[in-house]
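Data card: per-record layout.
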Amino acid sequence: MHENFYHTVKVYYEDTDAGGIVYYANYLKYLERARTEALATIGLSNLQIKEKFEALIIVKSCNIEFKKSACLEDNLNIRSFIKSVTKTSFVMNQFISKDDNIIVEAQVHLVFVNDKSKPIKVPQIIFDNLKPYFCDSIKL
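The structure for this 140-residue chain is written out next.
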């Protein structure tokens, strides 16, 4: 059984428009924060990946569906897991919920690249440490 990574964010005034509704681009920031915190659970950061492996994790594509809006001072829960993996990338599914209702669904394709933006193999230690977050259907 795969694990989900959970992260919570609170909606601040700066995240909203004049009507107190979360501006759509800020959901991407919430998803990024959850991915960054997921890395921390395996003892890494984006800076460490850059320094130790001379690699960056970049977003190749993002498919996001907005189902409902979040508002000022809402507490949002973000659930993340890895849906698929290749030698150089992985796809992460992420769901933002408010009061146990999914309000945003996203599928983010992340690629490991070198300093010339060329795809590189996911470092084995990262691959191994991320395994708990792999969806059950991934065949390794």
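Known properties of this structure: The beta strands are 5-10, 56-66, 75-85, 89-98, 101-113. The first strand starts at residue 5 and ends at 10.

See the next section for split statistics.
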